[in-house]
Amino acid sequence: MFIDASVLSAMMTDEEEARAFAIRIQPATARMTSPLAAANAAILVSDALGLSPTEAGEAVRTFLQLMNIQLLAVPPRAAVLATEAYEHYGQGGHTARLSLDDCMTYACARYYRQPLLSNSDRFKQTDIELA
Hints:
The protein is mainly alpha-helical. The chain has helices at residues 5-12, 18-25, 35-49, 53-66, 77-89, 100-111, and strands at 2-3, 32-33, 70-71, 116-117. It folds into 2 domains: 1-69, no CATH class; 74-123, no CATH class. The N and C termini lie close together (7 Å). This is Ribonuclease VapC.
């Protein structure tokens, strides 16, 4: 399962969906995210909890360890997959209106052949397998 920043930050800030995400993550034997998602989550957590970005980044790293979520490198092939995702689902021509961050998340999930766990409804309008 590839976990995006919206899920990480929702769980870390105890948003309404946090417990539902924890239940969905629990049975997954493969749990992963990217450095981009971790950095994005740190920024979201920093804003939500009033922490410095550095403090929030440390909290995200600790959370990933506690939840047994691997931080995997963004593979070079993700650039091609993200560009293709933007062409099909990007902000200009598709109702999903995926941003660059969304396209990179899509690309990593696609590259690692993992279902995507996200708090965003945008991915429901794409062909990515959802967790």
